[in-house]
Amino acid sequence: MRSASIRIRFLLMVSITLLVTACGFDNTSDKNTDTVRLVEVTHSIFYAPQYVAINKGFFKDEGIDLQLSSAFGGDKAMTALLSGHADIALSGAETAVYVSAQGAQHPVIGFAQLTQKDGSFLVSRKPVKQFDWNDLKGKELLGQRKGGMPEMVSEYVQRKNGLKPHKDLKIIQNVDFKNLGGAFASGTGDYVQLFEPIASKMEQEGTGHVVASFGKDSGNLPYTVYMSKKNYIEKHPDLVKRFTRAIHRGQRWVQSHSAEEIADVIQPDFKGTSRDILIKVIHRYKSQNTWASDPLIDRKEYQRMLQIMEQAGELPSSVPYETVIQTNIAEKVIQKEP
């Protein structure tokens, strides 16, 4: 049965956008710098190449004054974009599919990719020497929000390994994302699906043990991409290209530097996380090629995402790749066209 909650939220966002007059903004903070308001779905080490691009001055080199904010939710990030309170949103590509299916007044286009794999891990209460996905049979998994990409990926991986979600195992979904680690530490569930750095912190404390990677077992996806309204891209093609170029420089820098070097650059963005944990998380993400090496959004990976959404019963309609994805800007950046 398809979940109505996700689609209802996006329908509400579209309705709000029709009622809200987008705030006018001056895209120039001075004669040589353009302001870009970027909203990220959440603040996470998962987006390390972005913070590298910021802290290494790659946006400044492109004449961009980047104003970054966190929405703490894909629906909220999309609301900020649609209502005109953000110029660009970093979120899962599935949000563009939802918006397109609801017939938004201003189409949303994904133009650059940041992560190409799910960033969550399966954490066991007890150490497991040789984990097999069939170990989940008859167990309780503290999972993610119904209809969200992490949960859809989890169920995709379960099916891929011969399990029937919600039948072969119980999936607990009434715990908020921010409380998952605490709930597991308090005794809820036999396994939990966690993002970093919570998974590594639990390992350090001895309250959990990472036994599998959802990203590794699900394959490449347009997991988090940069999106904007179509009319914004058409009005500011050079600015969007410069933005993409800064991100690509961050991607290349991360590819060519060690976990220790990356940790030193992004540490100011994660003052509450120790350097040791940062290094461990970055190494884990680098080892499974979590971060895309370039901003190009792949057609086959997009189709895999639709397949995952369909299996989860969350695909409102089969939105064509060309409807929500644009590659010409990323292609020019990769080819170093002026």
Automatic annotation (TrEMBL):
Domain (SsuA/THI5-like): residue spans on this chain: 48-258
Compartments in which it is found: Periplasm
CC annotations in GO: periplasmic space
SUPFAM superfamilies listed in its UniProt record: Periplasmic binding protein-like II (SSF53850)
Signal peptide: 1-22
Family annotation (Pfam families): NMT1
Main localisation: periplasm
Record-annotated membrane-spanning stretches: none
Key words of the record: Signal
Family statement: Belongs to the bacterial solute-binding protein SsuA/TauA family.
PANTHER family the record matches: ALIPHATIC SULFONATES-BINDING PROTEIN-RELATED, TAURINE-BINDING PERIPLASMIC PROTEIN
Protein name: NitT/TauT family transport system substrate-binding protein
Organism of this sequence: Melghirimyces algeriensis
